[in-house]
Amino acid sequence: MVDITTRLYDSAFYALCAVFAAVTALTSTLLPHRAWGAIAWVGYLLAAVIALAGLVQRTRLAWLVFALVALVPLVTQAVQRAAGRTDRAQEEVLVVEQAAVRLVHHGTPYLDRSAIAALPEPLLGYTPYQPGMAVFGLPRAAFGAAWWTDARIWFALLTIAIIWYCLRLLGPRPLIALAVLALPLATLTLATGGDDLPVLALGLLAVALTARDRFTAAGVAIGLAGALKLFALPIALVLLVLAWRSGRFSVAGRFAALAFGLPVLALLPALLVSPDAYVENVLRFPSGHGLVTSPAQSPLPGHLIAASLPAGRYVSLALLLLAGVLLAAWLLRRPPATYHAAALVIATGLTAAIMLTPTTRFGYLLYSVVFLAVWWDRDRVTPGQDSA
């Protein structure tokens, strides 16, 4: 039985999530988001009632919420999309699926600058991911349009498996479960786009494996994340310091070889086919030097500075560099000795990057929230609160 204070907090959390989902359904300018909100508010409201009753363990309730407000909207949108609705997926889903088609036919998921310029919608020609992300589009490339070949389905399957294993490794950590399974930043993202969830899940798995002193496996996990998205590399750097801090340099060496070697290995075929195409998609486009502007334009400080000040982009990048220097100094002066401490450094570094990068999205803050939950939840679980 969950104690009354926790029940009230959780019920209020789910009630606020229900309000957010309802407002999204009524006001969002993005049709996939509206479709998510129209279903999700009911699931969150039901969760608020269940949480108040306190009859379901918190982690199990988080899984139930995930099913109701992430998986049900996701499958609904995938079915509607397969039936012909073109407004039931965000652009990144199409981008990943088209990248898979190019990977199959041309050996690279990337188009070069001239090929992108020739497209009716150049934005959809850009693939600002590492080559591994195209794997999630392979079912659609191989079997055609069906609900189960939607890239989001495969994002979800991998994410579910990894998070389940993470929570087994970390033990009863309901706050982490709430952050990664129930927070609208996670459920909305998975249901409508989803490409960040496998990266986040693999990053969380890497941290969880270090908690069990399994640095080689952690290197594989974060290396796979880096093969999907460059956003994983700062996590790898912090965990490398943690591995070095353990005092076993051979362990740190194996971790580094896997964490940074796997992304390079995944990248080699694309570089051999067309290095210019990789640079155009993964470096020029996100940094604002592509043929079109990146849609990642959330009004966070880095974007506002870049958009409103003379030479604002350079000011923003200078601040980002300064934040990186300060973070490096923190790591050198006080290297993390536990996975909790590493999670705090990761959360701080990613938050600084998200806030100061000229092209950014609010949704990326999910990374920061989840790793902050790992740090915060370190000593705050008692046997009476959860056993799931």
From TrEMBL:
Membrane topology qualifier: Multi-pass membrane protein
GO terms, molecular function: hexosyltransferase activity
A Gene Ontology cellular-component term: plasma membrane
Cross-referenced InterPro entries: GT87
Subcellular location field: Cell membrane
Domain of life per record: Bacteria
Keyword vocabulary terms for this entry: Cell membrane, Membrane, Transferase, Transmembrane, Transmembrane helix
Pfam family, one: GT87
Transmembrane feature ranges: 12-32, 38-56, 61-79, 153-170, 175-194, 214-243, 255-273, 314-332, 339-356
UniProt record similarity statement: Belongs to the glycosyltransferase 87 family.
Protein name: DUF2029 domain-containing protein
